[in-house]
Amino acid sequence: MFIKKNLKYEKIPVPDKVSLSDEKMKISINNFSDFMLKRHTIRDFSQRHVDIEIIKKAILVAGSAPSGANHQPWHFTAISNPEVKRKIRKAAEIEEEKFYSGGASDEWIKALEPIGTNANKPHLEIAPWLIIVFAERFGTFDDGTKYKNYYVPESVGIATGFLITALHNAGLSVLTHTPNPMNFLNNLCSRPKSNKPVMILTVGHASGKATVPQVAKIKKPLNEILSLLE
To answer: Is residue 212 part of a domain?
Structure first.
């Protein structure tokens, strides 16, 4: 919560500045690239325990992401309670059944075929943690007055990327899931209507039988995702 009277511009030196030589920069980015290329989206999770401190630290990393006007328009609900996870799975599968039985266009369903997804989402119960990502349309000052948040989708998207990267760095697998609509998550997570559920992250360790779709390893080459104006 922001304290209104403390909101004023004041410059301070850049804290914890990271400075590397050109050579070390290349080594660092190459090592990080190799590590991130080991990240895979899986749907088969084990029930292996994940300590809550790891989840907390990863969310703290997400909270350090840049945001519009530094309003940090996000909230994360981390769930390990089996009953709550069961309810989320049940509600999500209801929406997924609608999607796969006619709610989505034929083109959309065809696009998903190489991924191998369907309306059954057992991972929502099996994995030790679910993290629900909420976007906050507005915030509240310490005196109870409201303020508008800016660039909310962009800010929440960046924070979610930070979170997925932090969890991968901890050796965990993450599956992104977006049932539509997701309003049921507000009630199950006790979040106000001003919070828009954006995504369910299933978090845990891959099971011994985990697989990935072969098509998921096909990524666009650099020349298709980069334009250089030198």
So the answer is: yes
